[in-house]
Task: structure prediction
Amino acid sequence: MSAHRRQPIGMLLSAPYAVFIAAVFAYPLGLAVWISFHKYIFTAPGVDVPRPFVGIDNYTTVLSDPAVRRSFLNILVFLVINVPLTVGLALLLATALNAAVPFRTFFRVSFYVPYVTASVAVVGVWLFLFSSDGLVNQVLGSAAPNPSWLINEHWAMPSIAIYVTWKQLGFFILLYLAALQNVPKELYESAAVDGATKWRSFRSVTVPGVRPATTLVTLLAIITGANLFTEPYLLTNGGGPSGKSASPVLLMYQRGIEQGHPDTAAAIGVLLVIGVLIIAGGQRLLERRQA
Amino acid sequence: MTSTLPVGVSTDDRAGGGTRKRRPWGRIVGLSLGAIAFLFPFYYMIVGSLQQRSDTSLGGAFPKPGNVSLNNYHEINAAINLGRSLLNSAIFTAGVLVGTLVFGVLAGYALARLRYRGRGTLFAAMLLLQVIPFQLLVIPLYVQIVRSYGLADSYLGMILPFAINSVAVFVFRQFFLQLPDELFEAARIDGASELRVLRSIALPLVRPALLTATLLTFIGPWNEFLWPFLVTKQAGKQPLAVALANYISTVAAAATNPYGAILAGACVLAGPAVLLFLAFQRYFVSSDLGSGVKG
Result:
């Protein structure tokens, strides 16, 4: 085969996708940054208004807004609960599934069902389950929190974090199942020969064996958390009680589109991405040190 | 799935771990608890949608003959016109599927099998955009699509940001990469054009990839809430996820059995995605999607 023959038709075939990426990701990304440094208001199509450069004004507005600061803190609470729970449960269930167990397909399918279902639909049943006189509180009796979960300022954000863990877990189990196929069986066998317990071989063979997948799962869980919108909007009725479960994206929607300040909303978005990059970078650093 | 496609073989069905003779009871108990936690809310969703009067007691988890009716479905249908919203969801989803299956396949094929200027850049961009939170782009996309192009309350405005699913492009690329070179050489020596090679040789061999990508792409727009919520203000254009969310946040309180009506709407919204997934679940396996994690 002529190794260096070029096939320019490839450019033609991938042109629609390249244009799509440029128009729907690259350009808006640049526009978001641009808007965040300018005074920007919505106008009707074709209307030209001055949009002066305002430096970091939008950022100072956003950072001095207690509601926005609170929303970033809320996301940290979310991540602290959601990420370890996701990594731990997904790896445990994937390991349990990665063996000859009866009804394997049934288990696998049941774990994926929440992931393929619309959050709007599942939120409906969670509202029902966790309402003040809902089934969960009926089971708990006097141990139920008062006010109930979703309207309790201490429990609202943890409830959302647990909901999202439950909803997304299937996808992460899927990623871990793929990674587990790459852990050499011989390692388990030699661990067994050395008399390692099941827990011990999980700790010293499985966990290090799937480390690249853990990095990916952590990163994706962080990005999912940063994107949080539907759940605080519907589950806790717009980030309530008193903003204790508001997310940055919910604030972006309220400030940008409801109140018509796309410039400050864009600044929230840019800060959010910087935050994700910092957390993701810090997590990688931590993992390198452990490895 | 054919054995010529290592990546298409469901590694999920291969047992790993120990080879002990006795039944792994610990695993079975753990997996069963998991299955109950994952499935019970769906069971409860159906039971609740059929309750004439909302019953949150423990006994309410089992349907009672005297309390079963389809009233909730009538109530939600009167409030949000299920047929119309389902049609809107279907059009939105179909648009994204067509875009992905046409342009995504072309891009996946080019990225896997052709050498040309810009291929590396495109592949890098594809991987990079996986880590950009989509919601960051919501404000500029809203400015562009709704304000500049005036595409509010239009299917095109809904579809555009999702038109080609990048994960599907990645899946296509992985599958095309697995095909043997000789196949393509032979066809090209016979003088077949690239498009013909793709259509008559490559595509039939990656049918599992098409099904995996279809399933994966379907759940995106069908379940999406934020973007269509921003684009559609007219009830007649809202997909079911948006219409139901509006019902939950504003209208439900006025209904006689608000939870019942919400759960009936939830069943209608969840139904198509869950049934499609159950029918094609064997294509939704780790080896197809997780190929990026391996190595």
Summary: Chain A touches chain B through 114 residues (CB under 8 Å). Residues 66-97 of chain A form the longest helix (32 residues). DSSP finds 13 helices and no strands in chain A.
